[in-house]
Design brief:
single chain, alpha/beta, 7-stranded mixed beta sheet, Nucleotidyltransferase, domain 5, 5-stranded mixed beta sheet, about 25% strand, globular, Molecular chaperone, 2 domains
Length: about 350
């Protein structure tokens, strides 16, 4: 079954588009990546996709509409570039872009306007995967553990370094997963102060020294003492992390180094606490050599960085897979992970 996965993360680097072929035999799923590409957002769209709590209802609806059109245009360009006929696809599965995530208040909102995609391509579109789970009392996140369990089960744990670090692993014959801490959402923002989109291989952070006072304040944030299921959003970082960094009075290299140390401490605390033997790391942060070195120095867990396609497109693969499961009316959200009362099949289908 051929499906396209569309994924936009909080790091705002661009739209991941991944064409996959999924097969199932005797309950065992397999996949292949046929074509994949990340299309960068221009500065105007990066600004529009950055959370702005002062938008009016009209402005928010216009943003959702415009972003749906953007997704359609980006996907059309991808299909034309690779000589792919949209009619050869079984479905398009779009995560959209998380603009607001406050599950404790019963809200989560992903931009992306599925009807616009369906109208453009006239093939089934699956989207809006999170709201049903939040309505059921879950966190609406993390969602990728269904793919970790069914597609990447050979790894004891899967850790993704995007805007946030989230981990997924088997525990007591069920799946456990949760957000650990912010990563690129903060590191990229700091790197931009020096004129860079991100901290290439962690070279900027490696120039600084750890500030123990800021490090302690970051590590003492109450979120880290909360039990899972739990998830993070941009709002939490804006309210809790950025003020600590901005008020520290430190130079930019010290800020980057201290934040990188904070990530390494929080990640290895989880790896060591749950005695995880091996862990596959994906997402843009997998290329942060300085961060990976720090993590390896603080744990005996075997850290595995897979091939480039998996590092960069694993989440897009899994959202394509979630669309396939939803189309087949199979569970694609794990209740023990999100905190929902039971696993369920989530996502709105336009067809």
């Amino acid at each position: 079954m051929k499906a396209i996965g569309l994924m936009s993360g909080t790091s705002l680097d661009g739209l991941d588009i991944c064409l996959c072929d999924f097969t199932e035999k005797d309950g065992i799923w397999a996949f292949s990546i046929l074509k994949a590409e990340t299309i960068p957002y221009n500065p105007q769209w990066q600004e529009r996709l950055t959370y702005n709590g002062s938008l009016s209802a009209n402005e928010l609806l216009a943003l959702d509409h415009d972003y749906g059109i953007l997704l359609g245009n980006m996907l059309q360009g991808f299909l034309q570039k690779n000589n792919i006929d949209a009619k050869s696809l079984s479905l398009i599965s779009s995560h959209g872009h998380t603009y607001y995530h406050r599950p404790e208040q019963g809200f989560t909102f992903q931009l992306g306007n599925g009807p616009e995609l369906f109208s453009k391509f006239q093939i089934p579109v699956v989207c809006d995967f999170r709201r049903q789970d939040v309505a059921m009392g879950g966190q609406g996140a993390p969602l990728v553990p269904i793919g970790d369990q069914l597609l990447f089960h050979k790894n004891a744990a899967c850790l993704n370094f995007g805007g946030f670090a989230n981990i997924s692993f088997a525990e007591n014959e069920s799946r456990t997963a949760f957000d650990i801490c912010p990563v690129n959402f903060v590191l990229n923002d700091l790197a931009k102060e020096l004129g860079y989109d991100y901290d290439y291989q962690g070279l900027l952070a490696s120039k600084g020294k750890v500030d123990m006072e800021l490090l302690k304040k970051l590590n003492d944030l109450p979120f880290y003492k909360m039990k899972h299921p739990k998830s993070l959003g941009a709002e939490w970082v804006n309210e809790n992390v950025f003020p600590l960094i901005e008020n520290s009075g430190l130079g930019i290299f010290e800020k980057l180094r201290t934040m990188t140390e904070h990530v390494a401490i929080q990640v290895t605390d989880i790896l060591n606490r749950y005695q995880i033997k091996n862990c596959m790391i994906t997402g843009g942060g997998a290329y942060n050599a300085h961060l990976i070195q720090l993590i390896r120095s603080k744990t005996n867990c075997l850290i595995h960085i897979p091939e480039k396609e998996i590092v960069e497109y694993k989440e897009a693969v899994i959202f394509a897979f979630m669309g396939v499961l939803r189309w087949q009316k199979k569970n694609n959200v794990i209740g023990t992970v999100t905190g929902a009362p039971h696993s369920h099949s989530s996502g709105i289908i336009y067809s």
